[in-house]
Structures are given as structure tokens and as C-alpha cells.
Amino acid sequence: MATETLTLGKALNAGLRRALENDPKVVIMGEDVGKLGGVFRITDGLQKDFGDQRVIDTPLAESGIIGTAVGLAIRGYRPVCEIQFDGFVYPAYDQIVSQVAKMHYRSRGKLNIPMVIRIPFGGGIGAVEHHSESPEAYFAHTAGLKVVSCANPQDAYVMIQQAIASDDPIVFLEPKRRYWEKGPVDLDAPLSEAYPLHAARVARTGTDATLLAYGPMVRTCLDAATAAAEDGRNLEVIDLRTLSPLDLGVVYESVRRTGRAVVVHEAPSNLGMGAEVAARITEECFYSLESPVLRVAGFDTPYPAARVEEEYLPDLDRVLDAVDRTFGW
Fold it and tell me: Is this prediction's pTM over 0.85?
């Protein structure tokens, strides 16, 4: 078993490499993904090893990247498109919502669009405007798209391969502030035995309250649970992993045990993923709840300047404050 300690970014690179090796129809395309290896070096070395016909440096035109990928997918290829930063995806939004999401439905199931749209998302890196956004709700709201987010190196390695192997279009959200965090990765893990792509998972067991998160906030919630344990409070942490379709069976089971739930994400709370999760928990677990489902999220403002982003991002203290409030009812 070839288990190595890798950063999340290196795990993604290894997963992309494995996908390129396993299927000659996989192509990677995006701005600076080839010679430079991507702005975060996620595709580092891939063009050198697989050539510029499979790892393609595109013009600076997100709509053109996605539109070209749609044509490739219809012709049997499996394009993997990198959107360099989350805030750059909006020029491609028309293509994603009007073409990528609807082609299978429009063709009455005759056409599949097996493509992956990789988006580094979230804040925490001190970036400038348009470089630290959380657009996941736009895509999760769109019928015809699947949306997933990895939170640790092992999931990054496996989930990117699973997404590429899927016949559905998938928006793959990568927590950019976690690219450099390390963890064990089983490089020999067969996809056939891997944890399902569209399934939530308990990241830490607990009995007193349930924290629900995805992407960059999973680590924040795990840190909060560790801190809470010092005060004798045992928090369960669930990594949602898939935002569309939502997998809430494990969530319901947890909330029925703990009686309390807090949903955490970086995106603004207004009409965010937390609202949907809270509504479904309330519908299914109403008689088990000891308090309302609470949300900890970014504020309903444009993402702030880097010097004050730590005031905007949910942190350990805000999560623990929400947990305290659930015990005040």
C-alpha cells in the first residue's frame, strides 16, 4: 500500500495524473495550466509528461474554455477545466448554466457531458478582489449540475478521479486556503472500493451537538471540536462533501442523537447552502431538536479587502459561540 504524506494540492496533482494515465480521452484545459503548472501549481509537470494536446494552455476567456469543453465532451472526451480563481467563473456562468447543465435534458438523455469544472474557492489567502469568493450556491441551485468539495488530501486524490470518471458534469470546488495542508494519501486506493463521491461522512464522532461543514470549514469545525473537548463538550463533525445532490442521511442520524446542529460555511448566510441544510434538518428531525438549527457564515457583503478578511471568515470562536447558543434554548 503506497501511502504518502501529501499536501492537498499535491494530492490533486496525483489524482489528475492518475486520470490522465488511465484514460486517453481525459484532457486538462485552462489558463496557465500547462507550462506554468497552474497558479497554485496543481497541474505542475502534467504538460511536460502528457504533452500540450492533453494539458492545454487556453486564452484568458472562461466562457471559451467551458464552451470548447462542451464540444469536446459531446465528442467523447472528458475535459477537466480549471477556473483560475473563483471570482473568474462568472464570464463562464452562461455556458455552465445554459449549456453544461441542460444538454443532457435537452437531448432527452442522448448526450452526456462528462466534464469537470475545477474551481479554487473561498478566502483566507490574503488575495485581492475577485480572488476569494464562494459561488457554490449558484451551481448547487442549478438542476443538471453536480457539485462537490474536498476537504483533505485523501479525498482530494480520490474525489477528483471519481469526478472525472463520472458521466455527469461536476463542479469541483477546491478549498484554496487548504492547498498546503498535509495528510496521508493511499495512492493505491482503487476507485471501485473508494468512499462514494456523492456521500457525506462523519469526520469526528460526538454526542453533544453536530457541526456540518464542507471544503475549507471542515478543518475549522474540527479545530472547534478539539477546543470544545477541553471544556467537556463532545461535538460531532460531518463533512458534507457533496452539495448537489445533498446526502443528508448521515446528518439526520447524527442530529437525532445530538439534538443540536450548526451549519458552517464561508459564503454569505442569505440563501446559502446552510439555509437549505437547516430547512431539511428541521423538516426531518423536528421532534429531535433541542434548539433551532443555527448557521455560521460569511456576512452579506462583498468579500472584504484582505487586511480585514479574518473579521469576515467564520472562525473557531464564532463556531463555538453558535454551539453555546444551541445550549441556551
Answer: yes
